[in-house]
Amino acid sequence: MWDLVVRRAALTPGRPVLLQGGRQLTFSELRARAERVAAGLYDRGVRPGTVVAWQLPTRIETALLSFALARLGAVQSPVIPFYRDREVGFALRESKAEFFAVPGVWRGHDHTEMARRLGARGIFEAYDDDSLPDGDPSKLPAPPAEGTSVRWIYWTSGTTSDPKGVLHTDRSLIAGGSCLAHALRLTPEDVGSIAFPYAHIGGPDYLVMLLLYGFPAVMFEHFSLPDALPEYRRHRVTVAGGSTAFYSLFLAEQRKQPGEKVIPSLRLLAGGGAPKPPEVYHSVVREMGVQLTHGYGMTEVPMITMGDPRDTPENLATTEGRPPAGMEIRIVDGEIRLRGEAVCQGYLDPAQTAAAFDADGFLRTGDLGHVTDSGHLVLTGRLKDVIIRKGENISAREIEDLLHRHPLVGDAAVIGLSDAERGELVCAVVEQPPGSPELTLPSIVSYLRSAGLSVHKLPERLEVVEALPRNDTLRKVLKYKLRERFSGPLA
């Protein structure tokens, strides 16, 4: 990873790499400042292989600390800044972190006090440039000579059980980022944006793109619309996105000013991490006048497939794109399995690693799908997201895609609820656009029947909510919370 920094700093030293507020960091400054931070960390006892956890917001300083750790060859364990005692304590214990970088008080939460309460070792604050460790780079040992050792521990979301520690190398993260950049056909003239937590697996993916192609990205510590729009416009961002929820947020802003581009410089929305209903693709292209490419990735494999901006509208709307060279996809009983350089090395827990990989070394994803004749991957749901009603398997994803076409549905999630007669019944949970007439179950059933949905797949229950519960990273819908809320008999 550090080699990329050195090479890019030599190629385009004065070009900006990160933009935030009124600040910018050039590629040469990234190298020089990261080396000083690495020297400061070295003075504190951080060595190659030392485990350093950090729970920091999306700031320039966070990227500097991360690359400083890469320069040293330390093992870094990024923790999403929204996580609290349970997840943070688990990550610190399981990783055996010897140091823990925190932002102090951030968004009303005292991370330093939490770290002390959890018994973290080597706590230090890294909330701005002045608080970062600083030292003399001439005292540093040589940078890592290879990229195949485990130097990254990322954490799965852990919604109903403890998170899993996912083991990555520099090579696996570089494979993901380089394939993403190639698939999106980015150029040095582009300006990207990082509107999601930098501690997410997408953080290094994005930085690899910047280092390979030499273009900058705007960082957003806290993303919300319309508040973030001035920054997108000021820096003339050409590529934005994050996940399906981000597309919908941009689309909602565009609908406030139809006919006038909400971000004049924008040419591409791109992302992944959550299902993309075809109607969202068509609405973005039609109303925003930009292309949308969606991909498929996970903490264990940051880049699996990605849509190509030059692909057909049909493929961009209904598939997750094609895999890059070197990514093998195997479908076993409907489940997607993966093998390739971007695949993680496994988990901190050897038993979880043994369970996750099959005899041929393919990672079991738990996702369902198929590959088309043109090589495009179509996701159809999760193994655990299949509703079994009277012995028949029903894909929640199929119903959700149809519901997203309904003009009175803003967003939707379909879940299975325990039922004595059927085994499970189909429950549709929807958000409605503000001011919409209230939906009813008969009207939804009628709509789905007219759309061609089989009778045995029709919802037997409808719940209208103000907002679907989501996580704090890529805004994925938390279906387990919906099942907890709506399980049991109707009132």
Automatic annotation (TrEMBL):
Name of a matching Pfam family: AMP-binding_C
According to the entry, every stretch annotated as the AMP-binding enzyme C-terminal domain falls at 398-471
Please indicate which superkingdom the organism of origin belongs to: Bacteria
**Alphabetized InterPro entries for the sequence:** AMP-bd_C (IPR025110), AMP-bd_C_sf (IPR045851), AMP-binding_CS (IPR020845), AMP-dep_synth/lig_dom (IPR000873), ANL_N_sf (IPR042099)
The family database entries (PROSITE patterns) matched by this protein are listed as:
AMP_BINDING
Q: Which Gene Ontology BP annotations are present? A: fatty acid metabolic process
Provide the AMP-dependent synthetase/ligase domain boundaries: 7-348
Q: What protein name applies here? A: Cyclohex-1-ene-1-carboxylate:CoA ligase
The organism is Streptomyces roseochromogenus subsp. oscitans DS 12.976
